[in-house]
Amino acid sequence: MRILLGVSGGIAAYKAVLLLRLLREQGHAVRVVPTAAALRFVGAPTFEALSGEPVSTEVFDDVPGVQHVALGQEADLVVVAPATADLLARAAGGRADDLLTSTLLVARCPVVMAPAMHTEMWEHPATRANVETLRARGVHVVEPASGRLTGADTGAGRLPEPEDIARVALEAAAGAAGPVPRDLAGRHVVVSAGGTREPIDPVRFIGNRSSGRQGVALAAAAAARGAQVTLVAANLAADLTEPLAAAGAAVVAVASTAELRQAVRSAAERADVVVMAAAVADFRPAAPPTAKIKKVAGAAPAPIELVENPDVLAELAADRLRPGQVVVGFAAETGDDGASVLDHGRAKARRKGADLLAVNAVGENLGFVTDVNEVTVLDARGETVTSVAGSKREVADGLWDAVAKILPSM
C-alpha cells in the first residue's frame, strides 16, 4: 500500500518516527510529508533514512513533478500524526499553503488524522468545530489519548500510541473503519496486568519482566467495546494507567500476589469476564525481614526460603464467583528439551481449567519487552481456538473476539 505520512509541528512528532517504522515493517511504502515546523522537532534525514524516500515541505521543491497534486493522487492512505491544532484549522479551512495541506486537498483516499495538543487547545470551541467539519467531510479524526503531556501537564490531548494509530489507519484503508463492535456493552470486565513483586526485604524483591502493556491493551479494547472495566494494575507506570482512568475505568494498584489475589477476587464478584494477564509470581520469600539484608564481606549470603503462592487463575476457574462468568488466563512459556511452548501451554490449559488460555512465548526480547505479540488461544481441553498476532492491541481485539463467542447471553 502507498501511504503518505503527514507530520505537523508538535512535540509528539517523535512518535511519527515509530509509526513510520511500524508501517514500513508491515510492508507498506511510506512517503513522509512534514510541515516546516515538524522538521524543527525531527530532521528530514531521519524520515528519509527510515522511509527510503525524499522529504519535501513546499510545493516548489519539485515543480516538474507537480508534487502537490501527484502525491495525493497516488496515495492509498493519508495519515497525519501528529495533527496539531494549527494543522486541523488549516485543513478544515481548505488552506493549501504548504505541501501537506495541498496534498490533503487533492487526496481522495481515506484520510486519518491523529490530533495531539494541550488539553485546553483540544477542548477549545474552535478546535472542536474544526474537528466536526473534517469529520463531516469524511476524514477519520482519532480521539486523542489522555495522559502525560509536555512538562508536568496531564489530560486529554496526548497522541495515541503508534500501534493504535496504525491499526485505525489500516482499517480505514481496508474499508473496515466504522463503529467498534459493542459486543461487551453492559458487561463488567476485570483485567489484571503487570508483574507482581514479592519482597525479599524492604529494598529488594522477586519480580519479572512484564511491562503490563498487553493487559492494558486488553482493558482499553474492552472499554472501546462498551465494557465497564476494572484494571488490577501490578506495579504499572502511571502513564499506562492514567488514560484508562481518565476514560472511566477503575484502576486498582497492587504490588504483591496476595494483594492482586484479593483485588481480583473482590472485583470478580461483579464481573462477567475475568482476564488474568498479569505475570504472577509462583513463589515468595517465607519470612522477609523488616530490615535490609546486609552484605558481610567474605561471608556467603543466607539462603532465602521460598513458599508457593496461591494459583489465582486456577482458583478463579474453580470458584466462578458469579454464575456464567468467563475466566481467561495467560501462559507465558518457554520451550525446553522435553516440550515446546505449545505443549506446555496445553498441559497448563487442562490443569488450570480456565475457559480460554492465551499462550505466548517469552524470553529475552520476546513477548515482554516488545510492542507486538503472538498468542495461541486454547480452551480448557487444550484445543486450539484461534491464533492472533500483531500489535498488542490487535492481540487484545482478537482475544475479545474469542471471548464474545462464548459469553452467555445477557
From TrEMBL:
Domain Flavoprotein: 1-171
Reaction(s) catalysed (UniProt annotation): N-[(R)-4-phosphopantothenoyl]-L-cysteine + H(+) = (R)-4'-phosphopantetheine + CO2; (R)-4'-phosphopantothenate + L-cysteine + CTP = N-[(R)-4-phosphopantothenoyl]-L-cysteine + CMP + diphosphate + H(+)
GO molecular function: ligase activity
Any coiled-coil regions, as ranges: none
UniProt keyword annotations, A-Z: Decarboxylase, Flavoprotein, FMN, Ligase, Lyase, Magnesium, Metal-binding, Multifunctional enzyme
Gene3D superfamilies tied to this protein: CoaB-like, Flavin prenyltransferase-like
Amino-acid positions noted as binding CTP in the UniProt annotation, renumbered to this chain: D282, K292, P310, D311, V312, L313, F330, K348, K352
Cofactors that this protein relies on: Mg(2+); FMN
Pfam families: DFP, Flavoprotein
Chain segments carrying region Phosphopantothenoylcysteine decarboxylase: 1-188
Keyword Transmembrane helix: no
Phosphopantothenate--cysteine ligase, as annotated region: 189-410
EC number from the UniProt entry: 4.1.1.36, 6.3.2.5
Metabolic or biological pathway, per its Swiss-Prot or TrEMBL entry: Cofactor biosynthesis; coenzyme A biosynthesis; CoA from (R)-pantothenate: step 3/5; Cofactor biosynthesis; coenzyme A biosynthesis; CoA from (R)-pantothenate: step 2/5
UniProt cofactor note: Binds 1 FMN per subunit.
Domain DNA/pantothenate metabolism flavoprotein C-terminal: 184-405
Family to which the UniProt record says this protein belongs: In the C-terminal section; belongs to the PPC synthetase family.
Function statement: Catalyzes two sequential steps in the biosynthesis of coenzyme A. In the first step cysteine is conjugated to 4'-phosphopantothenate to form 4-phosphopantothenoylcysteine. In the second step the latter compound is decarboxylated to form 4'-phosphopantotheine.
Protein name (record): Coenzyme A biosynthesis bifunctional protein CoaBC
Gene that encodes it: coaBC
